[in-house]
Amino acid sequence: MIVTASSVQCLQAKTGLPLLNQISGWIVLSVSSLLPFISRVEHSTPMSKILMYFLGFGPCFVILSISVEGMFYVAYSMTLLCWIEVESSLRNAQPSKPENAQVYRFQADDLRIVLFFLFFVQVGFFGTGNVASVSSFYLSPVYRLIPIFNPFYMSALLLFKIIAPYIILSVVFATLTYQLHLPRFSLFLNALMITDGMTVMFFFNVTDTGSWLEIGQTISFFVVASLLLAWSGGRSRTTIRASLTVRDVYANGKAVIIRDLNNPNLSVAYSSHVQNTTVARISPSGYYCASADAVGTVGVWDTVGEDQTLKGEYKVISGRMYIVFFTPLPFEIIGHSKAINAVSIRHQRPFRAATAADDNLIVFHQGAPYKYDKIIKTHTKFVQDIRYAPSGEHFASVGSDAKIFIYDGKTGETSSEFTDSPHKGTFMACSWSADSKSIVTSSADCTVKLWDVESRKSVTTWTVGSGVTNQQVGNTWSAENGIVSLSLGGDLNVFDLRVGDKSTRTFTAPQKAITAISPSSARTFLAGSADGRVLSYSIASGESTSLKGEGHSNFVTALATSSADGKVFSVGFDDRVREITSDGKEFTPASFSTGSQPKGIAVAEDSSVFVAEVNTAEVIRSNKKVFEITPKSTPTAVAATGKLVAVGGEQKVVLYEWDGKNLKEGGVSERNKGVISALDFSPDGKYLASGDSSGRISLFNVAEKKLVTSRWSFHSARVNSLSWTADSKHCASGSLDTHVYIWSVEKPMKDIALKNVGPGGVSGVLWIESGDGKTGKLVSAGADACVRVWEIKFRV
Hints:
It comes from Armillaria gallica (Bulbous honey fungus). One of its GO terms (cellular component) is cortical actin cytoskeleton. WD repeats lie at residues 376-417, 420-461, 669-710, 712-746. The protein has 796 residues and is of the alpha+beta class. It is built from nine helices and 51 strands. 22% of the residues lie in helices and 36% in strands. Strand 10 (352-357) and strand 11 (362-366) form a beta hairpin.
């Protein structure tokens, strides 16, 4: 501002523009305008990124504005920020619907946002602060940088001043899409549709008759609408590229997961495969994903919509598939005698393809159409992976012989071998950076290495623990400075090129079916799985972490939380009762060996632990058995509240009173039609809900010892889990039939149904938010090893 003020005074005094002022002005304008694009600063919030761009283009309006003209830029930016707040408030004020919170449903109100976007495009172009100098040919501000008249450079500066607000608008529009959790491309596609219609309309209104003013107006309308169309289309393409850098896709069980690395709550699960999935890949456009399973079935499905609609299913082979990829032309791979591990295609002309297999060979194909060209014998053991660089100039191969080779992308000739500090174990995977200058490799020696292609040197090495579970078996680039590597144990390790000693984030998730779920604190809940692991989930971030300490060796049967001290107790098929700390982070050393296989667990108000076993029910306190009872029927479920304990068996529930030393029978209910599979007391202790193997749920009034209703019977298979809201007015149930129902105590015949929400069966439901009585958040988990969060609006 000081330099600009000095330049204005010199120009007004007609003493000429000082050379130092001219150089300083150009330096400030160039550096500030380029800094937002080249900066590698990680922004914690979208608003911080908007602020960076606002400050970056601020000097442009300080230097190239006259009088208060520069205030247009400030007012324009503040209005855009207010627009974000208004739209966010309107969206939050809308009533919630019973839908999956991981995927946002597109709404008609988004058309309003698109119209405002087009309005701000017009304001940015026709605003006083932008084109007053152009329309009046007033060039005084430009002389502050170019003292000699030059039409080309002067017009370039004025056009740059017009474009600057559009850059702020683009960042704000992307932030708005992120803040509202809208589907990718939805706003841009609607803007494209509207501007396309405007362009067609103005095209037919163009006239060649009348006055020159009328002809010029019709042509200008058409040109402006065409520019809006080009702007909308350009912004759509930019967003596609940006969105793909923060999402990774992987297969787990019968599901395919697309994980959002910035916000795990926005991850997507596709669960339509009948057999275990083996591989998945997102198309270059980002609109589709192809996934394959263990019997050779390939499905292509939509990644943008809410329902992941299946576009096509193909039976390719009769065995396990290892690779899927997208190519513009079909071709057949020949030349291998063993299983093929990797395929990579050169997308530039001339087209080429390379394949790697367990026969230690690389087969090079020329195309298109693709035909066998030659065999490359550089590796002495299995070739695990092969990848073409984005530039197409080279491709790389890695193998079990702990070697990495670089080849010419057009001819397939071997260019070099990397011998500097190689991995000490099998190379499992490799990936190129976007600029084709670096390669990242993952190895069975539990390390990830970054290589510089030009110098063939190892730049950075990250070590990920030790042991078999930390062997690195896959990797990909997630952003300009981000690398994701997959551990054999299922963890996704995220590395930052600027942090050279350890991973910046680790994403942990269940690999086997989730079998039990229980609250840990107001901010977390725990989930046990069929492989014996227990994970802690953050309600706010959606991230999960494995508990430390010695846990179960296999199937976790049940979890129960103590209302007294917040500790969580677990039982498993290893016939052990284990204790978890109140913060839900680790197992304590304490454990108790049960007399037989446990079926369920509950905790009373005095922290006594009740375990339903095959033949008996044991009571444990301070890691010691204090009481044991042998019911007439085999115990299958147990629940406790205050001093009351309910034990379920064959078609009946027995109520006991616990005095700290003995269990005294207090009543029997025999209204269920099958084996009791789930029990849960309401938080106020007034009701007891019991679910059985036939899918029926019975509700009892504990104090009056009478049946309230037995009409909660819409499940068609075993009820696995029950959970009450905090106000004891609603109960949720999860069943083997894949459905979740929310039942009302006040209106027993009214229910909210969530159909087919747990492929393979729902094994656990838990309310994590139900404070206002009108809305709530429900967690469900099951056989597909996925945890889903649902926003529920109660029928009041």
